[in-house]
Every structure is written in structure tokens, then in C-alpha cells.
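Quick one, C-alpha cells below. Sequence please?
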């Protein structure tokens, strides 16, 4: 996967500290940048200390929007968000990787229960616009600091009016209601107990919603979570946990249609081993919460030092994060080619 330059077609000031960036995709790159609602783009950001990557969710939906759009909230001290807000102008060019991410609508017509906090509303807007092209009922609980912080306020109002009985938006404002309480989350669940749940927002907000959902009977497999900030949990040291957990001297990596044998050493992640072996698989955050580096285990044992994205079902189906994956066993084989 490689970067391409995309032109900024339009910049929209959504709130005093949030902007949307609409991107032009040349016809020859249209297939490469085809995306699903809920996915994100990874941008290469220049900096005096060296370039770095930042992931930002698409707030557009391919079913309703002509051009892809990301929405970025300024974060105090944020190197990426401040560069987007201060340095970029319409007509400028951005280095962008193709769309990635698994925070997308599942199959079926189950109702959707969405919880968005602050700028975590960005992928929710995309999911809502996509789902409204079908028949699903949607309820969104959207928490913000105050009214001026509400991104897409007018757009949500217009969508609710255009789809009466299908889209319900519940606003929570800390400035007038205090911090979000568990009983508000429980109230939002009523009538949507059989729904699919999507959650994105600041860490404390997500922890509260997640704990409340599970405490009130929501099955773990029904909840999808998108994180774009570190959880605060440091990666734990990964050591052999069972008798016979040997460290392999090499591992097999399937990448771009070929099988590669690469050297492996204790303490290395699979991503580090792949790079040392001359491979260049896609990666973004490298902290276990974006799944850009997703792969599957074919053989052997892979232990994740940190995982802020995969459900128990995902893990049971052998999904791994190669930026967090450590290998054990005489033979270990993984594949990027299923992603």
C-alpha cells in the first residue's frame, strides 16, 4: 500500500474547533480509494522532527456523497490536528493512504444504536447516512461539552426531519446536564436491545458506555468500538505462558500474494519482523487501536500485547494486530492477504 496525493477540494468550518476536508480523487485512483461508511484515511503529516501518520475517520458515505470527506477536531497540543487547521488551504495536496478500518455496518436490518462523543461523531455520521439508504431504525446518543461543540448539528436536524420514525438523535450537553450518567445510556437502550451497537468518542465516555451496556445485558458481540486515542493501558510484556511456548527463529508471512520467510527474535512484533525482512505492510497508529496492520494467524500462536479493537469473536477467528503480535511455537504463519 502506498501514499497518493489527493487535492483538497473544499474546507468546511463545522464548529469553532472542527473542520471538514473534502478530497478530490482522480479517476485513475477511484477504485483504490473506494471505501465503506465508517472507514478512515491515513495521512502523512510533515514535521520538523520527521513525518508521522495520523488516521482520521471519513464523515462522508459513498452512497450519498460525491467526494470523500474527513472531519478533524483541533486538539490542544495535537501535532496532526493543528497542522490540518493551521497549515492547509483549499487546493493544497495531501499524502493519503487508501481507506482502511473495520468499523462498518454489518449485514442485516437490525436497528442501530449509536453512541458518539465529541469528534467521535465523525464515523457515526457516515454510518447513519449509509444506513438511511436502507430500512434500519437508528437511535444516536450524542454527547458534547456544549451546544457550540456539536458537529453536524444542522445536518442531523435535516436528516431527522427527512426520515421521521427512522432516525432519532438524543443530545447530551455537559454544560447544562452535567456529565453523562449510566441511566441515560440505559434509557437509550430501551427498544434497541436487539440492535447493533456502535461506539466512538473520548476514552472516559467510551468506558462508561461500554461498561453500562455490558452490565445491562448487551452481548459483547453486538458492540463495535472505534478508538483513535490511546486507551491509557500500557502494552504488557509478552512472555511464554505455557510449557512448550518456544520463540521461533523465523516466521512465514503471506504478503501481496507471496509467502516470505523472515527472521524473528524474542520481543519483536510481527510488524517489526516484516519490516526487517524487507516487507512494507500497511500500518498507522502502531498502538493497537486502528487495525490498519490487521492480519490473520494461519499456524502457531500469536499473543497481542495490546488490543483495543478486536472482539472475542474476532480473536476466535484468528484476527491479529501485527503491531502488537508476538510469536510463539516452532512454526508461525500469518497472512496479510485476507484484509
Amino acid at each position: 500500500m502506498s501514499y497518493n496525493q489527493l487535492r483538497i477540494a473544499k474546507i468546511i468550518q463545522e464548529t469553532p474547533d472542527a473542520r471538514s476536508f473534502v478530497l478530490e480523487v482522480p479517476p485513475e485512483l477511484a477504485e483504490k480509494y473506494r471505501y465503506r461508511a465508517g472507514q478512515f484515511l491515513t495521512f502523512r503529516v510533515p514535521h520538523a522532527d520527521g513525518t508521522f501518520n495520523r488516521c482520521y475517520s471519513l464523515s462522508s458515505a459513498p452512497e450519498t456523497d460525491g467526494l470523500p470527506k474527513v472531519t478533524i477536531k483541533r486538539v490542544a497540543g495535537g501535532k496532526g490536528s493543528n497542522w490540518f487547521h493551521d497549515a492547509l488551504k483549499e487546493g493544497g495536496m495531501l499524502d493519503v493512504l487508501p481507506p482502511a478500518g473495520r468499523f462498518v455496518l454489518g449485514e442485516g436490518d437490525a436497528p442501530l444504536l449509536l453512541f458518539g462523543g465529541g469528534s467521535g461523531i465523525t464515523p457515526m455520521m457516515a454510518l447513519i447516512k449509509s444506513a438511511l439508504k436502507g430500512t434500519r431504525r437508528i437511535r444516536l446518543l450524542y454527547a458534547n461539552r456544549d451546544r457550540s461543540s456539536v458537529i453536524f448539528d444542522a445536518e442531523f436536524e435535516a436528516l431527522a426531519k427527512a426520515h421521521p420514525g427512522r432516525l432519532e438523535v438524543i443530545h447530551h450537553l455537559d454544560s447544562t446536564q452535567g456529565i453523562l450518567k449510566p441511566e441515560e445510556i440505559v434509557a437509550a437502550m430501551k427498544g434497541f436491545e436487539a440492535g447493533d451497537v456502535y461506539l466512538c468518542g473520548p476514552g472516559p465516555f467510551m468506558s462508561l458506555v461500554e461498561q453500562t451496556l455490558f452490565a445491562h445485558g448487551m452481548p459483547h458481540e453486538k458492540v463495535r468500538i472505534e478508538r483513535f486515542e490511546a486507551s491509557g493501558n500500557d502494552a504488557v510484556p509478552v512472555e511464554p505462558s505455557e510449557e512448550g511456548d518456544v520463540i521461533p527463529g523465523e516466521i512465514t508471512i503471506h504478503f501481496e500474494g507471496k509467502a516470505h520467510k523472515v527472521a524473528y527474535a524474542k520481543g519483536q512484533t510481527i510488524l517489526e519482523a516484516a519490516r526487517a525482512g524487507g516487507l512494507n505492510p500497511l500500518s498507522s497508529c502502531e498502538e493497537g487501536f486502528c487495525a490498519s496492520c490487521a492480519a490473520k494467524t494461519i499456524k502457531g500462536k500469536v499473543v497481542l500485547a495490546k488490543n483495543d479493537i478486536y472482539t472475542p469473536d474476532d480473536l476466535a477467528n484468528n484476527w491479529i494486530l501485527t503491531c502488537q503480535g508476538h510469536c510463539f511455537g516452532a512454526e508461525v504463519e500469518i497472512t496479510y492477504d485476507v484484509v
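Confidence is low (pLDDT under 50) at residues 230-236. The radius of gyration is 21 Å.
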